[in-house]
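Final report, results section. Input specification for complex C-07:
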Amino acid sequence: MNLIKIGRALLLLVIAAVAAIVVPYYYWLAFDVRIPITGARYSPVTDKLILTRATEKETKYVDVDGKSYTRDEFERLTPLLNYRQLAMAGTMPETLRGVPIDVKEVALNNLLVRGVPEYLDVPQIPLFPMLESQSGRAKLEMPDEFFRIGQRMEFLDAKTNRVNEERSVLFTQALQETGFAFPAKHIDGNPTTRKAFDEGYFVVDAADHLFHIKQVKGRPYCASIKTPDDLRIRYMIIQEFALREFYGIIIAEDGRVYLISYSGYKLIALPIPAYDPSTTTLMVQGDFFFRTISLTSPGNLNVTVTDRNYNVVDSYKESWPTKFERPPGIIASYLFPFTVSLSDWSSSFLNLYVRCSHWAGLVGIALSLVIILTIWFVRKKKIATRWFDLLVVAGTGVFGLIAVLLIGGVDDSV
Amino acid sequence: MYKSVVYKEWLKIRWAYAAMILISVLALGNTILNLKSVVRFHSPVAVWSAVILQSYLFYDIFRFVPLLVALVIAASQFVPEVHSSRLKLSLHLPVRENTIVMQMLSVGLIGVALIYAFIGLALSIITAVNFPTEVLTSMLLTIAPWFLAGVVGYLALATAIVEPRWIRRVILVIVGYGFVDTLLVLGTFKMYERVLPQLTMLGSFFTLGILLSAYRFRRGVR
Amino acid sequence: MMEYAVECKNLTHYYGTRLVFENMNFNVRRGSIFGLLGKNGTGKTTTINILNGFLSPTGGQCLVFGEDSRNLSPATKARMGFLIEGHIQYSFMNIRQIEKFYSCFFPKWNKEPYYELMAKLEVTENQKLSTMSCGQRSQVALGLILAQDPDLMVLDDYSMGLDAGYRRLFLDYLTEYAHGEGKTIFITSHIIQDLEAFMDDCVIIDYRSVLVTMSLKQFRAEFKRYSFDVTNPALKLVKDGVVKNFELIRTHASIYSFNPLPEVEHYLNAHGVEFSGLHEVPMSLEDAFIGITGKY
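Structure output:
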């Protein structure tokens, strides 16, 4: 009998757990509201930030002073961003801020790097292709080998699935000569052939030092990069731009952001507040005159505009209620003491993402307790033998209530 | 006595079991041929790139095979028991009721586990021959939740079949489906790496559920 | 040693709100053959299920060898042979497999009577039970119980689906078994005549009530049918202490009663019934059964 009761208790918990995942999922499927996505572009014409607010119907363009623009006007105010459209319409200005504008130059100077939480925290197989950065061919080609950096750097031949000793030794030695401490903690690059050129990989070694590794004419190129002593790298986003201003972005454990510049691998600290890359999207957008760095999270936008030397020119902050602060979310916090979701925008990994409702959740718990006690009272059930059920309802509110009602008593014929 | 239980369970499931082994073998064959043809039409490194960089799951036919195996075996084991209330015969044996029920369950679970071990081993060999160990690890972490889905599916279906009341059967099937569904999300490799221990623990909570069903069956709940 | 193999005390059962029986009391003496008789749907299988622990009674309890039937120990179960209504067995097994399966569970297992019985059937050893006729399956089920050599046999509607030959065969084997030391048989049936020479004690149940609890001998000796002619074709007699059942076809009437003839005559006079030609009519057990349970 005891085992049977334990079996029932465990089933009860499973049902409550499944309910805690499924019920909120369908609740949000039914009641989720679309919140306008706010973005910001800096106009080199008016020297003002223009906010774009995309709702399901239309996109509105408003500058920070509250002046509205049409789409055409917006495009003309941000000619470097919309140069293709303007060039096609023949409305591209000849000069901007006193500088003559050439479309090729505009394209070369336009940059965009994004750090989206769920693409930063992503499952990875730690094997990488080492592209040839100076093959003498117009297009990049995928090599036959992938490498790993464990106790040494090893190249594995896809044709034979064996280690290429010769190249492994070659690269390992090159790394050792630059002072690399095996194994690697982070390896980041941009392993694709759909880019103009290849800069290889940026690697953090066991001693938290940063290195640059690439392949030049079949030979290793290794460089040790000087970084601040207290820098602990959390993520790196490496992306080749023909402008060759920076190799990519470093997001530190403490939330600070750096660019790895081409000039002597100097790290440039971005003049933005430290941020949480697990909840906030970082976007670095560059053009001929400015750099616009935005941090966007649900409910918050924080934009910093700098010149090309990363001196702050303008900044803007805005907050709005998240879905949890709007009526469906508030109702949900009263209904559910907590919700569990398998996926989350903060990561590509599945997990049991628990969101607590704090004090509001007690209302749902109290209501669930009243309901279950009333049902037991009406059905003349003994409460004394059902303390575990009561405990589960007290702990999980409506999910426990659902579970108790679904599983019923041991002998119930319902 | 356990030998006797194994014997009876085996008699019930043997054809289904053979069919499930056949299906596993066919699915493995499909995986091998697929892989070979991709290598033939592209290059080995193109396959590596797809597998490592684009999360091409060359074994993704196995997302549902473990579940299918588990459900078929659970059904072939427990449907004959509840048909004409045959389970009374087992429960009337001079063995504690919980014991005999858990013995029956364990035979099915071991049977399912053996097929899983076979699939897992075969896939490991296929992967190890063609890819580095990192890919092997990734493959094992990727298929683990699929196998867990199978085990949970087996436990939930067995519990549902033995349960005497239809309404509760439906509830158990829905709960089982809800759980299994969370384990079969299609996506990239190693997605479940961080949540596998929690889901395994939660899934194991189904194990004793069949005792409740069997108890209710024996008590003649209608 | 206890006197009774089975004791049912104030057994009451409801399916939902539907009463099956109330306060049923009976004891099954050790070494006796006990029949639970009643029409279909009167609760015979319900009683058997309670007896075997497959149903929790709404009220009262049932003791098997002194143990509450809700929690039968493995040792007690080993002493009980159980024939499920419809001779249900593992139909996916063949004759050999099923014997092999059960043999490990029972300490006193003796396969000889089983194979002896099987030899009489027109079946092969490798034939699955599911391909056998109802009669053949009943013999397999019986053979298994005989091999188990239980102290108490619980047989739920052994006659279901069996023709006269198989019914006779079944009872012949049971009789032989019953001659063993202290063997008790608890049998239910709705076919009565076969049991006449077989049964010691019986309970006859009707919808919601117990009609008779006594030895068969006593029942046969005391339960009578009296016929007479009446002048009033609309005569009605209510069932009471004397009249257990009353039938009237035109002017020909019958009374079923446990009372002797003079008392019935006195009863009729006292109730002002005009009658003639009162006499006792001999009955078979089946007549008596129908007499007490009514034709419908």
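The first helix of chain B runs from residue 2 to 41. The mean pLDDT of chain B is 95. This concludes the modelling results for the funded period.
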